[in-house]
Design brief:
Strand content: 5-15%
Helix content: 40-55%
Radius of gyration: 20 Å
Shape: globular
CATH class of the largest domain: Alpha Beta
Number of helices: 14
CATH superfamily of the largest domain: Aldolase class I
Order of helices and strands: EHEHEEHEHHEHEHEHEHHHHHH
Length: 319
């Protein structure tokens, strides 16, 4: 039976999203938190800690993700997360952001293989919790992945989540299935697929290539269509009524944080970057939403979209 997880997306898949999602689309989905990034003093920001407090994640299967290239920072964070009650952590070796990779973190760590080896030696020797890895298949070229995978195989990696692109791809172009095939063939750890699953046909194409694959991580496709996992599992398609109720819960969740109009609208516009694909004539409505400056104007723009447009029969986000 296929298992599904929600990819970490900074600014999108944090606690407000997770709570709204499980309320309206309950299933066995596992969530990975947007990365926690300890500082040189090993401190964790209040925002990061609030996001993973178990009191705010009741009924949610959540794995905290850590972004670091210093073993002592990583292990400090693991200790804090264990104290909160977590039983597993995830290491981010996939983020392609320039500000992240310039510091040798995320996918930037993949081109520093000797440093990465020392880091992995220390964290796997010192961590009291299992560590899974979310990785790309290289920094510049997928040919790097054979050596990267050989390195991972030296450690008790709890699970290897593979986004088959190199850093230089960012999120564009076709996923590199030859590299993912190498992971399926050679990884000692269980393998999870991540990348460009936006509809049932996308999943079918991957599982036809890899019939033994049993875990898939979805990100942008799920933010665009919150019923995606249900559809991938053979369930009902999203309805407009569900989307309206889910949208209202998201909006209320951000208001409950005590935010004012500007950051609420900013976050909701990020969601509409993806969700607008659900509607046939979405460009002009998305433009209206983008121009809104307060919640009154925002609500008017969204209400007109819901009132005047029906959902597409076969919606799918396409970057």
């Amino acid at each position: 039976m296929m298992r599904f997880s929600c990819a970490p997306m900074e600014g999108l898949t944090a606690r407000v999203f997770r709570k709204a999602f499980v309320q309206h689309f309950p299933n066995d989905l596992r969530f990975y938190s947007p990365f926690i990034s300890p500082t040189s003093s090993s401190d964790l920001s209040s925002t990061e800690m609030k996001d993973v407090q178990l009191a705010d994640n009741q009924g949610i299967d959540l794995v905290p993700q850590i972004l670091s290239n210093h073993a002592h920072e990583f292990l400090f964070t693991v200790e804090k997360l264990q104290q909160l009650g977590y039983t597993e952590v995830n290491l981010n070796l996939g983020c392609p952001s320039g500000t992240v990779t310039a510091r040798g973190r995320g996918s930037g760590f993949l081109k520093r293989k000797e440093e990465l080896k020392v880091f992995l030696d220390e964290i796997y020797a010192g961590s009291p919790l299992p560590i899974s890895i979310k990785t790309r298949v290289g920094f510049d070229a997928e040919e790097e992945f054979a050596d990267i995978l050989e390195l991972y195989n030296r450690y008790p990696v709890h699970e290897l989540i593979v986004h088959p692109r190199v850093r230089q791809d960012f999120y564009k172009g076709k996923v590199r299935m030859d590299a993912f095939a190498l992971a399926m063939q050679r990884s000692r750890a269980p393998v999870c697929y991540n990348g460009d699953i936006f509809c049932v046909e996308d999943l079918r194409a991957v599982t036809e290539l890899f019939p033994t694959l049993d875990h898939v991580m979805v990100g942008r496709g799920l933010v665009a269509n919150p019923a995606l996992v249900r559809e991938l599992s053979g369930g009902a398609k999203l309805t407009k009524e569900e989307l309206m109720a889910y949208h209202e819960t998201l909006l209320t969740g951000f208001r409950d944080l005590g935010w004012n109009d500007r950051p609420i609208i900013s976050h909701m516009k990020e969601f509409w970057h993806y969700m607008s694909c659900l509607f046939p004539d979405h460009a002009k409505y998305r433009k209206r939403i983008g121009k809104s400056q307060d919640l009154t104007g925002y609500r008017m723009a969204v209400e007109s979209l819901f009132r005047e447009q029906e959902l597409l029969e076969h919606p799918a986000y396409r970057p």
